[in-house]
Amino acid sequence: MIMKVSLIAALTIDRIIGKSNSIPWILPDDLKWFKYHTLNKPIIMGRLTFESIGKPLPNRWNIVVSKNQPIIKKGITWVNSLRQALLVATEAAEAEEIMIIGGGNVYEQMIKIADRLYLTHVYLKVKGDTIFPEYKPNEWHVIFTEFHAANEKNIYNYCFEILDRRL
């Protein structure tokens, strides 16, 4: 079965996605969006992203890419390359979509083959050390967009967007 490869990320207007191995903002609605789109699917992440999360995400198949000797943790499949991660996810998962959840280096390599992007645009200026890769808007077709104004729980304006790669 050919599976769709999708990237899911929250990024600022300057494409910042992280600072010191964490996300420099809190948006509860984005966490719900992330959970909704990743549940019951294989998720692929780099080691630093896994370490920042600290544990396997429930009801997902957690695949972590690391060239270092892995820490043995129940609920994690360790691989040493993105190619191996894709093979493992494709062979064993029943889902139709593989979700790439970070970090920066993983996004940089996987955006070249991604079929879909799930983006949360956070209208915020912040310093960071991890950036979402540039992508050419003319190579993508927006299939969903939904703006949300800041409120008491989500203190920044943000917009959910889903883009499919143009054929």
TrEMBL record:
Residues 4-165 form the DHFR domain. CDD domains: DHFR. Transmembrane segments: none annotated. GO terms for cellular component: cytosol. Keywords: NADP, One-carbon metabolism, Oxidoreductase. It is an enzyme of class 1 (oxidoreductase). Pathway: Cofactor biosynthesis; tetrahydrofolate biosynthesis; 5,6,7,8-tetrahydrofolate from 7,8-dihydrofolate: step 1/1. Coiled coil: none annotated. GO terms for molecular function: dihydrofolate reductase activity; NADP+ binding. Its EC number is 1.5.1.3. One of its GO terms (biological process) is one-carbon metabolic process. It catalyses: (6S)-5,6,7,8-tetrahydrofolate + NADP(+) = 7,8-dihydrofolate + NADPH + H(+). It comes from the Bacteria. Belongs to the dihydrofolate reductase family. PANTHER family: DIHYDROFOLATE REDUCTASE. Key enzyme in folate metabolism. Catalyzes an essential reaction for de novo glycine and purine synthesis, and for DNA precursor synthesis. This is Dihydrofolate reductase. It comes from Candidatus Ishikawaella capsulata Mpkobe. The gene is folA.
